[in-house]
Structures are given as C-alpha cells and as structure tokens.
Design a protein that fits this description.
Order of helices and strands: EHEHEHEHHEEHEHEHHEEEEHEHEHEHH
CATH topology of the largest domain: Rossmann fold
CATH superfamily of the largest domain: Phosphoglycerate kinase, N-terminal domain
Structural class: alpha/beta
CATH architecture of the largest domain: 3-Layer(aba) Sandwich
Distance between the termini: 11 Å
Strand content: 5-15%
Shape: elongated
Radius of gyration: 23 Å
Bound molecules: adenosine-5'-diphosphate, magnesium ion
Largest sheet: 6 strands, parallel
Length: 394
C-alpha cells in the first residue's frame, strides 16, 4: 500500500488534489450524473477539516490540448460548492499567474478549483516543465483520480517528482478493494467476464485465471470463445484475430483445472435493434443469419448454480447488448443475483458499472469501482503508473 492523506500533516498546507471530475453533461452543460464528484468529497472534507488549503484539478472531456469553451469546469465548480455547502474559488487556467495568485491567497479550509488540465497538451505529454508549474502551486500532492491512474500524465505522474505524494481516500478504497482481490481473496473466487471484445479483456482473464477457482464468460466475448471451440456463431460479433488466444486460454484452463465456462444457450436475433424478433437457441444451434445478443435462460441458471457457493465474485462486462432492453435479461439477472449473494462482490468496467447504477443496487454489492480502463489494468498488471508514483510508507 502507498502513503495516504492520513500520513500527512496537512494543517495550513496547500494540497494539490488530482480528482476525476470527468462527469457526463447534457447539451446545455448540465451535469447528468455527479457520482464522480461525490466520490472525491470524503477526501476534500477530510483535508478541509484538518485545516488544509485544497487545490483541486481534473481533466474534462477531450479538448486535445486547447481551450474548448464547452469543456470548462464551471458546472463542476457550481456542483462542488453546492455539495460542500461552501463557496469554492475557480480560476480559468491551471497554470500561470491567476492560479498562482489564487493559491497564494488561500486560507485554511478554502477550496480552489483549477481549469481543465487537458487545455494544455503538456498534461497528456507528461511534460516536465508543466508538471513543475503545477507542483509550484502546492506543498503536497494527493492523487484521488483512480479512473485516470493508468495514464502517466503530468498531473498523475510528473508532478509526483516534485512534491510529497500520497493517495486520497477514494484511491485508497479502490486499491484496497481491487488489490484485495489479487492479494487475499476469500475462496471460492469466481470471475464473470462479458462485454464486447476479447482483445480488451484477454490480459485480465489471463491474470485472473491464475488466481481464481472459476471463470464464467458471456457477452460478446463468448462468441469468439465459442468459435474457437469450433461452433458456428452466425453473424455474431467475433474477433478472428483472437481465436488462437482463446484456444491458448482454454488450454491453460484445462491444464490448471480452473474451469472456464461458456454459455450453454443463447438469445439470438437477426439485428441488434429493439423490436427485432428474438429466439433462444442451444450453443450448437445459432442460425447462420442470426447474431448472439444475450446469454440464454439456461445459462443464467447454470452460471448462478456455479456462483452460489463462491465467497468472492468479480464481474466485468455485460452479458449481452444490454442497452437494448430486450437483450438485457442476462445482465440484469446477474446484477440482481450479485446484489443478493452472500459474498464479496466487486464490479468494474464502464458499462457494467453504468448498468448497476441504472438498477440502483450499487449499495448492495461490496465494491463498485469508479475506474473503467484503470480497473481492468490494475487487475491485469497489479499496479498502475499513477499509483506506483506515490510515496511508499516509511
Ligand atoms: P465494460 O465497460 O463493463 O468493461 P465493455 O466495454 O467490454 O464492458 O463492453 C460493453 C459493451 O459490450 C456493451 O456496449 C454491450 O452492448 C456489448 N456487448 C455485450 N454483449 C454483446 C454481444 N453479444 N454482442 C455485441 N456486443 C455485446
Ligand atoms: Mg467499456
């Protein structure tokens, strides 16, 4: 584990907090989901209560290194003020005279929000002069942007070369929950993988296969695995370039006696569109003109039987094209099942987390990760550049 804000004496100090305020907004710039802002509040509150002068920074959208008016952080500044019940200061750049003046004028407990870091190309290029300028605003650095920790950018990596650098409370929670899966999970431990592409998930599947007792595969991934087993999958999404990888993984699973289970029946349709006629078929019976859109009812039951005795379950990736309600049964049933399961349940990945939040059962699972790519990369590699860069305990 890395040092956290609890290890620092922050009273009267200027603390640069890298947050992930990359929230969804509608066309008129109104925030439609403030989960990511809420997630950083424990760190901000903790620092303020202890008398720190908090300087918040984040990226927002993809402005590609120039100022884009629609991607200013004003809506975030407003929402933060509301949520903290205190007016925060907000400046129109993240480096230069204005932020320097504002940072110097901060009093204990004050909060300053800097403008979108990615208005400067130097942020994503991890430019060392830019990192230094960011660092010059503060006395210490906190990374609470778990969702960005797989990127070595100026505000996640470069800046740590210039300041004492620790994890925030959200970062700590993510590292404990996800790291716990790698270090000391309760067994039996199962992973359920779905989603669109094998190529996105092959690394994590391979790494988890060495640590778990069971792997279940659904979603679009399953089609490529089924094809690798020699089955006809009609018009389903498939990655022909990954078939050899799938075979290797299935061989590894056989060799290590860690079962990797595929669907036994499927929901298929001629088109991935609402209103299309669907039918349930056995895995051996996918019609040539149909595509797999969800796992079938027998598979749902079969997967649940396998999960029933597990004490830890990691789930990533929808079981079907869940955005179309007709094709969402497998995913919704799985979420409900995990919410009721007496096991440590951890959910990661952009779509999977969205699906859980939509169903409003986030509270019922053990941990819903705030990272998409970062979550997968942490579980694949065991660490992230933005985490590595933080200080180790003395
Ligand atoms: P996560 O963001 O949770 O890691 P992914 O990004 O890997 O998940 O995949 C999410 C996408 O996978 C969804 O948009 C969903 O429609 C798609 N998907 C799931 N099952 C299928 C399928 N059988 N065919 C095509 N796409 C699928
Ligand atoms: Mg995704």
């Amino acid at each position: 584990m890395k040092k956290t804000i609890r290890d620092l004496d922050v009273a009267g100090k200027r603390v640069f907090v890298r947050a992930d305020f990359n929230v969804p907004v509608d066309k008129s710039g109104v925030i439609t989901d403030d989960t990511r802002i809420q997630a950083v509040l424990p760190t901000v509150r903790n620092l303020r209560e202890r008398g720190a002068r908090v300087i918040l920074a984040s990226h927002f959208g993809r402005p590609k290194g120039k100022v884009v008016e629609d991607m200013r952080l004003q809506p975030v500044a407003d929402r933060l003020s509301e949520l903290l019940g205190a007016s925060i200061k907000y400046v129109s750049d993240c480096i230069g005279e204005e932020p320097e003046g504002a940072a110097a004028a901060l009093q204990d407990g004050d909060v300053l929000l800097l403008e979108n870091l990615r208005f400067h190309p130097e942020e994503e290029n991890n430019d060392s002069a830019f990192s230094k300028q960011l660092a010059s605003l503060a006395d210490m650095y906190v990374n609470d942007a778990f969702g960005t920790a797989h990127r070595a950018h100026a505000s996640t990596e470069g800046i740590t070369h210039h300041l004492p650098s620790v994890a925030g409370l959200l970062m700590e929670k993510e590292l404990n929950s996800l790291g716990g899966l790698l270090v000391s999970p309760k067994h039996p431990f199962a992973c359920v993988f779905g989603g669109a592409k094998v190529s996105d998930k092959i690394g994590i599947i391979r790494n988890m296969l060495q640590r778990v007792d069971l792997v279940l595969v659904g979603g679009g991934l399953a089609a490529t695995f089924l094809k690798a087993r020699g089955l006809d999958i009609g018009q389903s999404l498939v990655e022909d370039g990954m078939i050899d990888e799938c075979r290797t993984i299935m061989r590894e699973s056989d060799g290590s006696r860690i079962p990797l289970l595929l669907p036994i029946d499927l929901l298929v349709a001629k088109e991935a569109k609402a209103g299309t006629r669907t039918r349930v078929v056995q895995v051996t019976g996918v019609p040539a003109d149909c595509m797999i859109v969800d796992i079938g009812p027998k598979t749902i039951e079969y997967f649940f039987e396998k999960l029933e005795f597990c004490r830890t379950v990691l789930w990533n990736g929808p079981m079907g094209i869940y955005e179309v309600p007709q094709f969402s049964l497998g995913t919704r049933c799985l979420i409900n099942y995990l919410a009721g399961l007496d096991a440590a349940s951890v959910i990661g990945g952009g779509s999977s987390v969205d699906a859980v939040q939509e169903m409003g059962v986030g509270e019922l699972v053990t941990h819903v990760s705030t990272g998409g790519g970062a979550t997968l990369e942490l579980l694949e590699k065991g660490t992230l550049p933005g985490v590595e860069a933080l200080d180790n305990p003395d």
